[in-house]
UniProtKB/TrEMBL annotation:
<dbReference type="InterPro" id="IPR000387">
    <property type="entry name" value="Tyr_Pase_dom"/>
</dbReference>
<dbReference type="InterPro" id="IPR020422">
    <property type="entry name" value="TYR_PHOSPHATASE_DUAL_dom"/>
</dbReference>
<dbReference type="InterPro" id="IPR016130">
    <property type="entry name" value="Tyr_Pase_AS"/>
</dbReference>
<dbReference type="InterPro" id="IPR000340">
    <property type="entry name" value="Dual-sp_phosphatase_cat-dom"/>
</dbReference>
<dbReference type="GO" id="GO:0005737">
    <property type="term" value="C:cytoplasm"/>
</dbReference>
<keyword id="KW-0378">Hydrolase</keyword>
<keyword id="KW-0539">Nucleus</keyword>
<keyword id="KW-0963">Cytoplasm</keyword>
<dbReference type="GO" id="GO:0005634">
    <property type="term" value="C:nucleus"/>
</dbReference>
<dbReference type="Pfam" id="PF00782">
    <property type="entry name" value="DSPc"/>
</dbReference>
<comment type="function">
    <text>Dual specificity phosphatase; can dephosphorylate both phosphotyrosine and phosphoserine or phosphothreonine residues. Can dephosphorylate glucokinase (in vitro). Has phosphatase activity with the synthetic substrate 6,8-difluoro-4-methylumbelliferyl phosphate and other in vitro substrates.</text>
</comment>
<feature type="active site" description="Phosphocysteine intermediate">
    <location>
        <position position="88"/>
    </location>
</feature>
<feature type="domain" description="Tyrosine-protein phosphatase">
    <location>
        <begin position="1"/>
        <end position="144"/>
    </location>
</feature>
<feature type="domain" description="Tyrosine specific protein phosphatases">
    <location>
        <begin position="61"/>
        <end position="122"/>
    </location>
</feature>
<dbReference type="InterPro" id="IPR029021">
    <property type="entry name" value="Prot-tyrosine_phosphatase-like"/>
</dbReference>
<comment type="similarity">
    <text>Belongs to the protein-tyrosine phosphatase family. Non-receptor class dual specificity subfamily.</text>
</comment>
<dbReference type="GO" id="GO:0004725">
    <property type="term" value="F:protein tyrosine phosphatase activity"/>
</dbReference>
Length: 304
């Protein structure tokens, strides 16, 4: 167990067995980031405040969604005059990810600086590639998990794909309700909306669009034997988060068509394995509605 910051320690599961060391370090909170329930190893007298994040040390595992809650847990210990021990099995990857996120948020550091500060204390830490990507995304979100941001929504969809891939392939997966945006046809809003060009049914709002970096244009399609694309191809589709009206089409399949829920016109398609946008960029997973099938609707503010 090593002290990384004032009131913050990083360690392994073995440190739970040394009660005297925990007491001497004024540890009041124990944050376990592990796939194994730490309960049997914790003191039974309830002398510590505990929190368990059930996660594997796997690049596809999700720690980003827990970073703010973990920060608050550690911060509670420090502000209360105690200390927090953050541990996983070996104290190398999962706990290092959470401690790095804490340092980033507490001291307003970028990922590289915070990670190097941790490595200066414990040289053997090594977060896996997936956790490093999540820490960089945390930095991009200014150390505040913004569930409404397009980047987080795309991240969440990717995690669901990895977590439920085998279930999706055999048609057994149930999709979390929180991944679906509210059906805009069921409520009013001043936000930009998009309607079916044929029947005028509202399909999605501007906040549901998941933007992506522009691809390499025609050169990205050079692998295709027959390609009519030349120059810098533009995006001809909207890639969006799933919307409530899509749910019946998504259940139990890896890909399929997206039809207007009112007139059944074909609007686009979806694939959990992704599609290549006309600009050349791959988007995974992809929920794609074609520009020529929808109209953008903006409300005009009339001046009195």
């Amino acid at each position: 167990m090593l002290q990384v910051d004032s009131g913050v320690y990083i360690g392994s599961v073995d440190d739970l067995n040394d009660r005297q060391m925990l007491v001497d370090a004024s540890v009041s909170h124990i944050l376990s980031v592990d796939s194994v329930d730490p309960g049997p190893m914790l003191p039974a007298d309830g002398s510590f405040v505990t929190k368990w994040i059930d996660v594997l040390d796997d690049p596809t595992a999700d720690l980003l969604s827990h970073m703010d809650a973990c920060f608050m847990f550690i911060d509670e210990a420090v502000k209360g005059g105690g200390a927090a021990l953050v541990h996983c099995q070996m104290g190398r990857s999962r706990s290092a990810t959470i401690v790095t996120a804490y340092l980033m948020k507490r001291h307003q550091l970028g990922f590289t600086e915070a990670y190097n500060r941790l490595k200066s204390v414990k040289r053997e830490v090594q977060v896996n590639s997936g956790f490093e990507d999540q820490l960089r995304q945390y930095e991009a979100m200014k150390c505040e998990v913004d569930t409404s941001s397009p980047s987080y929504k795309q991240y969440r969809l990717i995690k669901i794909k990895f977590k439920k891939f085998s279930e999706l392939k055999r048609g057994a997966a149930e999709l979390p309700k929180e991944i679906f945006a509210l059906d805009p046809a069921l409520s009013s809003s001043s936000e930009v909306s998009y309607r079916c060009r044929k029947c005028r049914r509202t399909l999605f709002r501007g906040s549901s669009i998941l933007s992506h970096p522009v691809g390499e244009g025609a050169s990205a399609f050079s692998h295709k034997k027959f390609s009519n694309l030349t120059g810098n191809a533009q995006c001809t589709s909207y890639f969006i988060e799933p919307v409530q009206w899509m749910e019946p089409a998504l259940l139990g399949v890896m890909n399929g068509q997206l039809l207007c829920p009112k007139c059944s016109s074909k609007l686009g398609s979806f694939s959990w394995c992704g599609y290549q946008c006309s600009c050349g960029r791959w988007v995974t997973p992809a929920f794609q509605l074609h520009h020529n099938k929808v109209d953008e609707i903006r409300q005009i503010q009339m001046q009195k």
